[in-house]
Specification:
This protein has 188 residues and is an all-alpha fold. The chain has helices spanning 3-13, 19-27, 31-53, 56-73, 83-102, 112-121, 127-137, 140-151, 156-163, 167-184. It folds into two domains: 1-107, RNA polymerase sigma factor, region 2, helix turn helix motif (Rna Polymerase Sigma Factor, Chain: A, Orthogonal Bundle); 109-188, Winged helix-like DNA-binding domain superfamily/Winged helix DNA-binding domain (Arc Repressor Mutant, subunit A). The chain has ten helices and no strands. Keywords: Sigma factor, Transcription, Transcription regulation.
Length: 188
Protein backbone atom coordinates (compact mmCIF):
# COMPACT_ATOMS: atom_id res chain seq x y z
CA UNK A 1 0.00 0.00 0.00
CA UNK A 2 1.47 3.34 -1.03
CA UNK A 3 0.54 5.74 1.75
CA UNK A 4 2.21 8.72 0.10
CA UNK A 5 0.33 8.07 -3.13
CA UNK A 6 -2.94 7.91 -1.21
CA UNK A 7 -2.18 11.23 0.49
CA UNK A 8 -1.46 12.89 -2.85
CA UNK A 9 -4.64 11.51 -4.42
CA UNK A 10 -6.69 12.57 -1.38
CA UNK A 11 -5.21 16.08 -1.54
CA UNK A 12 -5.87 16.42 -5.26
CA UNK A 13 -9.43 15.19 -4.80
CA UNK A 14 -10.07 18.16 -2.50
CA UNK A 15 -7.76 20.70 -4.16
CA UNK A 16 -10.64 22.54 -5.81
CA UNK A 17 -12.87 22.59 -2.74
CA UNK A 18 -12.89 25.33 -0.16
CA UNK A 19 -11.79 24.72 3.40
CA UNK A 20 -15.46 24.92 4.42
CA UNK A 21 -16.33 22.11 1.97
CA UNK A 22 -13.38 20.08 3.23
CA UNK A 23 -14.44 20.47 6.87
CA UNK A 24 -18.03 19.68 5.97
CA UNK A 25 -16.88 16.48 4.28
CA UNK A 26 -14.84 15.53 7.37
CA UNK A 27 -17.85 16.23 9.60
CA UNK A 28 -19.82 13.78 7.44
CA UNK A 29 -17.18 11.09 8.02
CA UNK A 30 -15.19 11.36 4.78
CA UNK A 31 -11.81 9.78 5.59
CA UNK A 32 -10.07 11.12 2.47
CA UNK A 33 -11.14 14.64 3.41
CA UNK A 34 -9.83 14.02 6.92
CA UNK A 35 -6.52 12.85 5.48
CA UNK A 36 -6.29 16.10 3.50
CA UNK A 37 -7.13 18.11 6.62
CA UNK A 38 -4.43 16.22 8.52
CA UNK A 39 -1.81 16.90 5.84
CA UNK A 40 -2.79 20.57 5.77
CA UNK A 41 -2.50 21.16 9.52
CA UNK A 42 -0.05 18.60 10.94
CA UNK A 43 2.89 21.02 10.75
CA UNK A 44 1.08 23.76 12.65
CA UNK A 45 -0.29 21.35 15.24
CA UNK A 46 3.09 19.70 15.81
CA UNK A 47 4.80 23.09 16.08
CA UNK A 48 2.43 24.25 18.81
CA UNK A 49 2.64 20.90 20.62
CA UNK A 50 6.43 21.09 20.53
CA UNK A 51 6.49 24.65 21.88
CA UNK A 52 4.18 23.59 24.72
CA UNK A 53 5.90 20.31 25.61
CA UNK A 54 9.49 21.19 24.69
CA UNK A 55 10.01 17.50 23.92
CA UNK A 56 9.95 15.89 20.48
CA UNK A 57 8.46 12.59 21.59
CA UNK A 58 5.76 14.22 23.72
CA UNK A 59 4.97 16.64 20.90
CA UNK A 60 4.53 13.76 18.46
CA UNK A 61 2.26 11.93 20.89
CA UNK A 62 0.26 15.08 21.67
CA UNK A 63 -0.11 15.84 17.95
CA UNK A 64 -1.45 12.35 17.39
CA UNK A 65 -3.90 12.83 20.27
CA UNK A 66 -5.04 16.14 18.76
CA UNK A 67 -5.92 14.46 15.46
CA UNK A 68 -7.62 11.53 17.18
CA UNK A 69 -9.78 13.98 19.13
CA UNK A 70 -10.29 16.12 16.02
CA UNK A 71 -11.82 13.15 14.19
CA UNK A 72 -14.13 12.51 17.14
CA UNK A 73 -15.08 16.13 17.82
CA UNK A 74 -15.00 17.84 14.42
CA UNK A 75 -18.77 18.17 14.72
CA UNK A 76 -18.20 20.76 17.48
CA UNK A 77 -16.74 23.17 14.93
CA UNK A 78 -19.58 25.50 13.93
CA UNK A 79 -17.70 27.87 11.64
CA UNK A 80 -17.98 30.90 13.94
CA UNK A 81 -14.23 31.47 13.64
CA UNK A 82 -11.52 30.45 11.21
CA UNK A 83 -10.86 26.72 11.39
CA UNK A 84 -7.17 27.32 12.08
CA UNK A 85 -8.07 29.49 15.10
CA UNK A 86 -10.43 26.83 16.43
CA UNK A 87 -7.83 24.09 15.84
CA UNK A 88 -5.19 26.18 17.64
CA UNK A 89 -7.40 26.39 20.75
CA UNK A 90 -8.25 22.68 20.56
CA UNK A 91 -4.54 21.82 20.18
CA UNK A 92 -3.56 23.96 23.17
CA UNK A 93 -6.24 22.43 25.38
CA UNK A 94 -5.52 18.84 24.35
CA UNK A 95 -1.75 19.29 24.75
CA UNK A 96 -2.11 20.80 28.21
CA UNK A 97 -4.46 17.98 29.18
CA UNK A 98 -2.02 15.47 27.69
CA UNK A 99 0.83 16.93 29.75
CA UNK A 100 -1.26 16.62 32.91
CA UNK A 101 -1.85 12.93 32.18
CA UNK A 102 1.86 12.37 31.54
CA UNK A 103 2.95 13.67 34.94
CA UNK A 104 2.34 10.29 36.53
CA UNK A 105 4.33 8.50 33.84
CA UNK A 106 7.06 10.91 32.91
CA UNK A 107 9.18 12.77 35.41
CA UNK A 108 10.04 15.99 33.71
CA UNK A 109 12.84 17.81 35.38
CA UNK A 110 14.93 20.54 33.88
CA UNK A 111 18.51 19.98 34.93
CA UNK A 112 19.93 23.44 34.38
CA UNK A 113 23.55 22.46 35.03
CA UNK A 114 23.52 19.76 32.35
CA UNK A 115 21.66 21.95 29.89
CA UNK A 116 24.03 24.86 30.45
CA UNK A 117 27.08 22.63 30.10
CA UNK A 118 25.77 21.22 26.83
CA UNK A 119 24.72 24.64 25.63
CA UNK A 120 28.00 26.40 26.27
CA UNK A 121 29.98 23.50 24.83
CA UNK A 122 28.20 24.00 21.52
CA UNK A 123 28.93 26.79 19.08
CA UNK A 124 27.03 30.03 19.58
CA UNK A 125 23.82 29.98 17.58
CA UNK A 126 21.30 32.61 16.58
CA UNK A 127 19.33 34.47 19.22
CA UNK A 128 16.17 32.60 18.23
CA UNK A 129 17.65 29.13 18.72
CA UNK A 130 19.26 30.35 21.95
CA UNK A 131 15.86 31.54 23.16
CA UNK A 132 14.26 28.23 22.15
CA UNK A 133 16.89 26.33 24.12
CA UNK A 134 16.27 28.45 27.18
CA UNK A 135 12.48 28.24 26.85
CA UNK A 136 12.82 24.45 26.87
CA UNK A 137 14.63 24.73 30.23
CA UNK A 138 11.78 26.58 31.93
CA UNK A 139 9.71 24.72 34.53
CA UNK A 140 6.67 23.18 32.86
CA UNK A 141 3.95 25.59 34.05
CA UNK A 142 6.11 28.67 33.44
CA UNK A 143 7.02 27.36 29.97
CA UNK A 144 3.41 26.67 29.01
CA UNK A 145 2.24 30.09 30.20
CA UNK A 146 5.17 31.81 28.47
CA UNK A 147 4.51 30.03 25.15
CA UNK A 148 0.77 30.63 25.27
CA UNK A 149 1.06 34.31 26.23
CA UNK A 150 4.26 35.60 24.60
CA UNK A 151 4.38 33.42 21.51
CA UNK A 152 0.80 32.38 20.83
CA UNK A 153 -0.83 35.61 22.06
CA UNK A 154 -3.34 34.20 24.55
CA UNK A 155 -4.63 36.50 27.30
CA UNK A 156 -3.90 35.53 30.90
CA UNK A 157 -7.64 35.02 31.49
CA UNK A 158 -7.74 32.42 28.72
CA UNK A 159 -4.57 30.71 29.95
CA UNK A 160 -5.92 30.61 33.49
CA UNK A 161 -9.10 28.95 32.23
CA UNK A 162 -7.20 26.41 30.11
CA UNK A 163 -4.79 25.50 32.90
CA UNK A 164 -7.26 25.59 35.79
CA UNK A 165 -5.41 28.33 37.67
CA UNK A 166 -6.04 31.87 38.86
CA UNK A 167 -5.32 34.76 36.49
CA UNK A 168 -2.76 36.02 39.00
CA UNK A 169 -0.98 32.65 38.88
CA UNK A 170 -0.76 32.87 35.10
CA UNK A 171 0.74 36.35 35.36
CA UNK A 172 3.15 35.18 38.06
CA UNK A 173 4.28 32.20 35.97
CA UNK A 174 4.81 34.49 32.99
CA UNK A 175 6.85 36.91 35.10
CA UNK A 176 8.89 34.00 36.47
CA UNK A 177 9.58 32.72 32.96
CA UNK A 178 10.67 36.18 31.77
CA UNK A 179 12.99 36.61 34.75
CA UNK A 180 14.62 33.21 34.23
CA UNK A 181 15.06 33.83 30.51
CA UNK A 182 16.64 37.24 31.14
CA UNK A 183 19.02 35.70 33.65
CA UNK A 184 19.97 32.74 31.46
CA UNK A 185 20.47 34.93 28.40
CA UNK A 186 22.63 37.39 30.35
CA UNK A 187 20.30 40.40 30.16
CA UNK A 188 20.40 41.11 33.90
Amino acid sequence: MNIQGNVVSAQSAFADKSERDLISAVQQGDKKAYQTLYQTYIGQVYGLCYRLTSDKSLAEDASQEVFIQLWRKIGNYKGDSKFSTWLHTVTSNITISYLRKQRGWVKRMFNIEDTEANYYAADQATDLSELERHVSRLPERARIVFVLHAIEGYRHEDIASMMNMAVGSSKAQFHRAKQLLKEWMGYE
